Amino acid sequence: MRIPRVQLFPFLLAIIFLVPCASFGGNTSPEVPVVDGGIGPCRADFTVKDEAGKPIYNATIKVTLRYGIFNKRKMDLEIGTNSDGKARITGLPDSPRKPLEFQIKSGTVSKSVEDDPSANCSAVYEVTLSVH
């Protein structure tokens, strides 16, 4: 039994378009935004939530990195969280002179978190922002 070419062409065309579309539906979690300081091998992962435990979208995380001879050079990094309240900062120095201070802010609410990469090179922080 032979399949006519007219019927085979639409079938193959449908498969060509449906196979790539099927792979897009499997991953629904948003990509975690990353900013790279480019100074060292350490990183800090943040999850920012409100007092009800819901993730906060576009909470800003800021840090100032000091490096070089006598810490004369500085670099300001800033990143916003995704819809899951997550963000990652990579390229942090592994032995800063002072602990790094991250400022997390959403609207009028802010919080400060200190990190010493020499003690914990892959830090993970769950930050809850609440109005006092």
User: Class, according to the CATH hierarchy?
Assistant: Mainly Beta
The pLDDT mean sits at 87
- Choose one word for the global shape: extended
Strand order of the largest sheet: 1-5-2-8
H/E series? HEEEEEEEE
Looking at this structure, what is the CATH superfamily?
Answer: Carboxypeptidase-like, regulatory domain
Class derived from helix and strand content:
alpha/beta
The CATH architecture designation is Sandwich
Tally of discrete structural domains: 1
Description:
With 132 residues, the protein is an alpha/beta fold. It has one domain (34-129): Immunoglobulin-like (Sandwich). Helices cover 15% and strands 43% of the residues. The chain is built from 1 helix and 8 strands; from the N terminus they run H-E-E-E-E-E-E-E-E. The strands form 2 sheets. Strands 1-5-2-8 form a 4-stranded mixed beta sheet, with no helix packed on it. A 4-stranded antiparallel beta sheet has the order 4-3-6-7, with no helix packed on it. It is extended and about 80 Å long.
How are the SSEs ordered, and which strands pair?
Layout: H1 5-24, E1 34-36, E2 42-50, E3 60-67, E4 73-80, E5 86-92, E6 100-106, E7 109-115, E8 122-129
Parallel strand pairs: 1-5, 2-8
Antiparallel strand pairs: 2-5, 3-4, 3-6, 6-7
